[in-house]
């Protein structure tokens, strides 16, 4: 039981997606490299309204689930591909790293799921109208070698 | 680990009984998404599995659902929920089977309407099949007292002598259910005879002398690890019968998880034995180490083919040995006693000469001072030896794209056998890193 806490929970999330589907604008692309290792998911999200910043674009999210998931949050980043750009947002760095409190250990809650995180990111994009990157983006992207989970973000924007 | 019996409340959506989805969802823990195991109530009146809520509270002291502060001590058992879950679990598979066999293509809503319609028109087929299935599922139900609240079922086997309890009730001469005297007559009209020996709930198993097995009753208090020296922590682990191997972070997480498992077990109606808990803990630790998002610190698993690995990476080892010897020479010439560093936390282990997994690999016995880039190769750590060698190879493989400091970090990181880079990072970084070079210091959004 305890051996596969994250594995089992992820299987359940997959089962739910299989049975019930995902909300509009969210699609599961892949759920792990193999059946045995389902800790790395790819999902595509779209913004549903006519926000000119994100209209007609599809963005790809990569989820990395730690072994202690769901007690610990997954690592969620945007993936850059030819047909999958990194969305412009004051909390999304151009290397795909997302500064969102619910992905940090303070804001995370074990009742969240891949689906709820996708919906949060979707709504974070929907509500944005600033066509800009975070402050210090260039420097951060150039220098950052650590993984998102090891970065100390300072969450100061409550409008998102 | 692939589970084949993964069930979910949405299983009902494709059947005519889609209305059961919210019902079943209410019987499942929001953390593990599984049926409640030993459900506990929080101060904010939310319910979770004992293990889930204890793990969550150990992590951030908040209710996962409403973020209200809470403490493990304040958790209370939710027996009614446990009863409901057990009953539903017993009924579920047959009900689902039946619902699926009746399932027709179409939207769940339409199907639900169909059922209502058929029930209204009194379809004979539906009724009889419902009744049949009711009988058929009986044995798998958790036995429940049948009838009013004042009927008490005795679940003991016939052969056991049971003294008549002095509760003002009498037992049915046929099925031995306890009830009030006036109820016996009417009950006998419908009594189906001695009830089959119930399969569930299992009775607490008896030990060798008819004593209940060691019952985990006393909860263990939380420990403030920062107040605890290494040896004190090791002693605590040893007192609990747990392994004392590994670096500090591992010891702490092992101890913490065992407390969680133990205390959750205390809540259970039928607690497991301590040996079972220890094996649960071991499998938890294995799961924490292998694969997943922590690929950077993969450690040896049981199928690891050491010989093949040694052959394949022999050259890398030789290079490392050479480098290590060079470093050692340099270190000696400087004659700086570098005993600090992360390695100092480790307990001294058996000498390297004993039972080396790679007899052909001299790297394992090269004595190097801690603080070298490949210092961990000198750690003669029996089962952890392979780990250290694995580490060394990783360093060479990845050295092209990682700066020097990064190599140090990786090597020490993995040689801790540490599955969670973050914690390790916390330990290692201040001593070894210039934070500015890694962009961890300036990031402010």
Automatic annotation (TrEMBL), chain A:
Superkingdom of the organism of origin: Eukaryota
Keywords tagged on the record: Ubl conjugation pathway
Protein name: Ubiquitin-conjugating enzyme/RWD-like protein
Keyword DNA damage among UniProt keywords: no
Any Pfam family: UQ_con
Domain UBC core: 5-160
Coiled coil: none
Gene3D superfamilies: Ubiquitin Conjugating Enzyme
TrEMBL record, chain B:
Biased composition (Basic and acidic residues): 344-353
Stretches assigned to the RING-type domain: 29-67
EC identifiers of the protein: 2.3.2.27
Domain SAP residues, every copy: 225-259
GO biological process, any: DNA repair
Gene Ontology CC terms, in alphabetical order: nucleus; Rad6-Rad18 complex
GO MF annotation terms: single-stranded DNA binding; ubiquitin protein ligase activity; zinc ion binding
EC top class named in words: transferase
Pathways involved: Protein modification; protein ubiquitination
Location of the region described as Disordered in the Swiss-Prot/TrEMBL record: 98-148, 190-215, 330-363, 398-445
Subcellular location: Nucleus
Reaction catalysed by this enzyme: S-ubiquitinyl-[E2 ubiquitin-conjugating enzyme]-L-cysteine + [acceptor protein]-L-lysine = [E2 ubiquitin-conjugating enzyme]-L-cysteine + N(6)-ubiquitinyl-[acceptor protein]-L-lysine
Matching InterPro entries: Rad18 (IPR039577), Rad18_fungi (IPR004580), SAP_dom (IPR003034), Znf_RING (IPR001841), Znf_RING/FYVE/PHD (IPR013083), Znf_RING_CS (IPR017907)
One Pfam family of this chain: SAP
PANTHER family: E3 UBIQUITIN-PROTEIN LIGASE RAD18
Protein name: Postreplication repair E3 ubiquitin-protein ligase RAD18
Organism: Emericellopsis atlantica
